[in-house]
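wait is this the right file?? whatever heres the structure
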């Protein structure tokens, strides 16, 4: 059974790594869009005329930045605490400790997958808001 459990633990570890990489990539994209939105908001605030389109553009940029923050924070779960790991290590049966570790890793994997889905939707929302802001900026520029 140990060999089978070792394979299961290795697979969960692989999936945890994949989710962590995908989350890091999304956070990078969200950060880039966040910085671009901030620059756009600063430029608009400095050069804007305060018209309805400019105000709407500023609101959309703020929404894009809020969505970007939602994609970056909070971080992924890291795993069971030190107390649980210590208790499993001194357990009479090594198999029970490994089974408990496997169950904990599955819980962390599921929580991290849910977090990844949330971050994905936040980045999609941020990108959509950035697209709307671009269109509004073009409308504002065409009026001048």
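ok assuming it is, sequence goes like this
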């Amino acid at each position: 059974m140990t060999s089978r459990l070792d394979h299961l633990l290795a697979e969960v570890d692989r999936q945890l790594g994949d989710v962590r990489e995908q989350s890091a990539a999304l956070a990078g994209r969200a950060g880039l869009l966040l910085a671009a939105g901030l620059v756009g908001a600063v430029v608009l605030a400095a050069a804007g005329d305060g018209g309805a389109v400019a105000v709407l553009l500023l609101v959309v940029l703020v929404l894009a930045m809020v969505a970007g923050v939602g994609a970056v924070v909070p971080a992924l779960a890291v795993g069971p605490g030190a107390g649980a790991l210590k208790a499993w290590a001194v357990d009479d049966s090594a198999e029970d400790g490994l089974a408990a570790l496997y169950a904990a890793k599955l819980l962390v994997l599921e929580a991290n997958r849910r977090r990844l889905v949330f971050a994905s939707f936040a980045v999609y929302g941020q990108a959509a808001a950035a697209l709307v802001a671009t269109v509004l900026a073009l409308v504002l520029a065409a009026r001048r």
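Residues 30 and 123 are 6 Å apart (CA to CA). so i think its the right one actually
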